[in-house]
Design goal:
The protein has 4 helices and 9 strands; from the N terminus they run αβββββββββααα. With 272 residues, it is α+β, with helices and mostly antiparallel strands. A 5-stranded mixed beta sheet has the order 3-9-8-5-6, with no helix packed on it. A 4-stranded antiparallel beta sheet has the order 2-1-4-7, with no helix packed on it. A hairpin with a 5-residue loop joins strand 1 and strand 2.
Length: 272
């Protein structure tokens, strides 16, 4: 068992690495005429490639093992487009056949979504290979000039993400208070009927001999509770609480009122 593990370790150390065979690029115009074509070197980049607005770049290669040159299919194959100044990059998956052959096309008129925003600077194009049974490999292929990207249309909500001017609140001016003489006059006008009522009662005389009767007092107290509830509503309560408390007071007030009216009728009839 130990001997078998050492064999696996040695096989892993001496696992064949990946290489490229016959990497080649072709640049053609929209009329299918060939503008430039050449074989790529894995040790030295060629002169930068330049694509026009309607040109097409074709890249072909075969992934092989360095030992034996057999074509293999990596588990992952990507082309990386990288702007060394801005740091923008795009990763484009590349399909590889079981025999290791691959082909990629870049049509400038219909660029893939993976292509990063472009300027007048070139994009560094490299090939990344990943495999479970081989060492990963990266190959710097060439520098590519692509027409500058068009300015994207502004988003409808873009303005809401910009710094906004500070919010200036406009407060309503303070309410003007009338002169104290005017306020005192109307306060006296409101209280005048009560003064007149008290004066007339003092002349006539108010007689409430049964006010504290056990059959009258509960009704009087409940009426006073309603008055207190209205004052409390004006000071602090909301309408929901007023309706709740009024409903609780309503039932005993009805029975106490009926009892008080019946008792008053008996007094007037001379039964008590």
């Amino acid at each position: 068992m130990l001997h078998f593990s050492w064999l696996l370790l040695v096989a892993h150390v001496h696992a064949a690495s990946l290489s490229l065979q016959s990497p080649r690029f072709t640049i053609s115009s929209s009329g299918a005429s060939q503008l430039r074509a050449d074989t790529l070197s894995l040790t030295q980049k060629p002169e930068p490639l330049t694509l026009g607005p309607s040109d097409t770049l074709k890249l072909t290669f075969q992934v092989t093992e360095t030992d034996g040159g057999n074509g293999v299919q990596p588990h992952q194959t990507f082309l990386r487009f990288y702007d060394t100044i801005s740091g923008e990059e795009g990763i484009q998956p590349v399909r590889v056949t079981p025999g290791g052959k691959a082909k990629f096309e870049l049509n400038v008129a219909r660029p893939p979504p993976s292509l990063p925003p472009t300027t007048d600077r070139p994009l560094a194009v490299s090939l990344i290979l990943g495999s479970f049974v081989h060492d990963p490999a990266t190959f710097d292929l060439f520098d590519l000039y692509v027409p500058a990207s068009a300015t994207p249309a502004p988003h409808p909500d873009e303005a809401s993400f910009h710094p906004q001017p500070p919010i200036a609140h406009t407060f309503r001016p303070e309410q003007k208070v009338p002169p104290k003489v005017v306020s005192a006059f109307f306060a006296a006008l409101v209280l005048a009927p009560w003064v007149a009522l008290l004066g007339l009662w003092s002349k006539v005389g108010v007689r409430v001999p049964h006010l504290l009767s056990p059959r009258i007092l509960p009704f009087t107290v409940l009426l006073g509770a309603f008055e207190v509830l209205l004052v409390w509503y004006w000071a602090a309560l909301n309408l929901g609480h007023v309706l709740l408390y009024a409903g609780i007071l309503a039932l005993p007030t009805i029975f106490a009122g009926k009892t008080a009216l019946a008792t008053t009728g008996e007094w007037r009839a001379g039964k008590h």
